[in-house]
Model the fold of this input.
Amino acid sequence: MDTSTLIGLAVIGGLLIYGISIYNKLVALKNQFKNGFAQIDVQLQRRYDLIPNLVESAKAYLKHEQETLNQVVEARNQAAQLAKAADATDGDSVRKLARAESKVGQALANVYAVFEAYPDLKANQTISDLMSELSQTEDQISVARQVYNDAVMTYHTFMEQFPNNIIAGFFAFKPTELFEVETPEARKAVKVSFE
Done:
């Protein structure tokens, strides 16, 4: 073999190794955001489990506020259904889940507003504990959402850079959606006060 053939083979081998390393990095980044999405799912499931307990505990006090309680349960049920079918790699399902979660946040804000008007509710230890747990869960959802969104942004940035975009396109790596709440009201942290 002559020198030019060896150089050509070395270049091809180097490009192949570089392409494999890009592919492996894309897989690792995709797995990171999928894991981030799984963490969101864990926290959402925790919230879905707490909401019915809170509503049941409050029913005795809020007989004339059934519509507010029903709205939060309905929003929770819709979001839970979407969460079961959600796939981190499917931008549409992420978007739908985020929209449903915004509705849950709005419904919970309405419930908290009603709770503020009833001192007896605040004094009830079970309700107080559930609201505290729900507030902690909301914080954990926010953290999980941020971790997921950071992982998605890292994946997108790497995928869009040259020559990574060529490898990503060849192997059909697709961008996904950020998990963002839709409304300014839903972006506000839920304030729980027992004063």
